[in-house]
Amino acid sequence: MPKEMIAKLEAELAEGLAAARTEAALEELRIRFLGRKSGRLNDILRGLKDLPPEARREVGAAANRLKAEIENRLEEARLRLNAAAAPEVDLTLPGPPVRVGHRHPLTLVGRELVSIFEKMGFDYREGPEVETDYYNFDALNTPSNHPARDLHDTFYLAPGVLLRTHTSSVQIRVMEREKPPVRIVTLGRCYRRDAQDASHSPTFHQFEGLMVEKGTSFIHLRGVLNLFLEKVFPFPVKTRFTPAFFPFTEPSAEVGISCPVCQARGCPSCGHNGFLEVLGCGMVHPRVLKNVGYDPDKVTGFAFGMGVERIAMIKYGIKDIRLFLENDVRFLHQFS
Ligand code: PHE
């Protein structure tokens, strides 16, 4: 043999491969060359027994090599066919759109609050979320029998250690460290044992401001807050100061803005009140100033605090405070 036979077979294979345009045609080729019954390779193998042993070994090895080569070439041809069948890639087409992340609405509003006050000369400060009774209550003139200190309202981690219920604790920490004039704002997470519903959450954010220096009066407080409230809401607002009580301010006030839906005429969305309460404020209580070593005869100050969620809800018309914590991208993607 058989060398010529092998060469002939290779030539035939090359011809067959060149002509095969489909997988079915390749399969036919495979049967023609490697098929058990009448495959061309079998013809050669069948002739082996008539050869002298020496030649038999040589031809047998050659036939095996040939078998492997046929298999390889069939597989190559199959891959080539498949590649040709794949759709052509147009590299000039734009790719699929990339989903860009958005800032959380609380981040957006928080930054805006800080920025408005920075432009008015206030500096940003931070304080810890895990606080002591002293900073959260005592130093803020909130005596130990005050209802806010009740276990029902405050998360205690250990006796005397708690999760801050408001950011007013930061007032004390700043005044202990810094001498008047003090003009600061702070922002951070607070905790209260409130049952969760559309307007209550056991964790929320407060934004707080404090200004203490010689001659600071309620007029300054009103001026600063009016300017702030006009800037922060995207609609015109009238403001209303009503008397209130906080242990750490005297006098104290609650501040409302005219309802953006009815312009203070009264409608269901403001509870027929005409105004929406947005923050608490007042003149820093002389006892608080004394607690941090300031002389209330020399300096006076004002403070204010508000819920960041509440401001965001009014600004964007968000009806349920729980949306801020759920991280539903359908909600979050609406803000930028
Ligand atoms: N800390 C008060 C609260 O949580 C808000 C407040 C801050 C009131 C500063 C007066 C002055 O309701």
From TrEMBL:
Its cofactor is Mg(2+). GO terms for molecular function: ATP binding; magnesium ion binding; phenylalanine-tRNA ligase activity; tRNA binding. Binds 2 magnesium ions per tetramer. Mg(2+) binds at E250. Residues 109-326 form the Aminoacyl-transfer RNA synthetases class-II family profile domain. Keywords: Aminoacyl-tRNA synthetase, ATP-binding, Cytoplasm, Ligase, Magnesium, Metal-binding, Nucleotide-binding, Protein biosynthesis. It holds the Pfam family tRNA-synt_2d. GO terms for cellular component: cytoplasm. It catalyses: tRNA(Phe) + L-phenylalanine + ATP = L-phenylalanyl-tRNA(Phe) + AMP + diphosphate + H(+). The keyword Aminoacyl-tRNA synthetase applies. The keyword Cytoplasm applies. InterPro entries: aa-tRNA-synth_II (IPR006195), aa-tRNA-synth_II/BPL/LPL (IPR045864), Phe-tRNA-synth_IIc_asu (IPR004529), Phe-tRNA_ligase_II_N (IPR004188), Phe_tRNA_ligase_alpha1_bac (IPR022911), Phenylalanyl-tRNA_Synthase (IPR002319), tRNA-bd_arm (IPR010978). Its EC number is 6.1.1.20. It comes from the Bacteria. It is an enzyme of class 6 (ligase). It is found in: Cytoplasm. GO terms for biological process: phenylalanyl-tRNA aminoacylation. Tetramer of two alpha and two beta subunits. Belongs to the class-II aminoacyl-tRNA synthetase family. Phe-tRNA synthetase alpha subunit type 1 subfamily. PANTHER family: PHENYLALANINE--TRNA LIGASE, MITOCHONDRIAL (PTHR11538:SF41), PHENYLALANYL-TRNA SYNTHETASE (PTHR11538). This is Phenylalanine--tRNA ligase alpha subunit. It comes from candidate division TA06 bacterium ADurb.Bin417. The gene is pheS.
